[in-house]
């Protein structure tokens, strides 16, 4: 599951969630933006600006565990 948004959500832009999203190489994301947004129990969240100007937040999960995806989606 991926969240894609743009700056200015208060200006009428919408949040978009979608499955089957493109997978990114961590190195590419860190090169696009080395800004770490935060850490949680399931992993670290990074901000990246894509070539088309879209801003994405990507969570790099610590470990894949049974039920981990379900827990991630519930939080």
Biggest sheet record: 5 strands, antiparallel
Arithmetic mean pLDDT: 68
In whole angstroms, the N-to-C terminal distance is: 12 Å
* Number of domain units: 1
| Share of helical residues | 10-25%
Gyration radius, rounded: 13 Å
Q: What is the H/E string? A: EEHEEEH
- Helix count from the secondary structure assignment: 2
Structural class, by secondary structure, is alpha+beta
Low-pLDDT parts are: 1-9
- Number of E strands: 5
Describe what this molecule looks like in 3D.
It is a single chain. This protein is of the alpha+beta class. The protein has helices spanning 26-32, 68-74, and strands spanning 2-5, 16-18, 35-39, 43-49, 55-61. The chain has one domain (2-74): Phosphorylase Kinase, domain 1 (2-Layer Sandwich), CATH 3.30.200. Strands 2-1-5-4-3 form a 5-stranded antiparallel sheet, covered by helices on one side. The longest helix has 7 residues, at 26-32. It is globular and about 35 Å long. The chain starts with a strand and ends with a helix. It comes from Trifolium medium. This is Putative leucine-rich repeat receptor-like protein kinase.
């Amino acid at each position: 599951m991926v969240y894609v948004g743009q700056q200015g959500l208060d200006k009428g832009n919408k949040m978009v969630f979608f499955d089957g999203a493109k997978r990114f190489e961590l190195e590419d994301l860190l090169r696009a933006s080395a800004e770490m947004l935060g850490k949680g129990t399931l992993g670290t969240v990074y901000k990246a600006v894509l070539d088309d100007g879209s801003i994405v937040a990507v969570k790099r999960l610590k470990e894949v565990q049974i039920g981990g995806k379900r827990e991630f989606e519930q939080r």
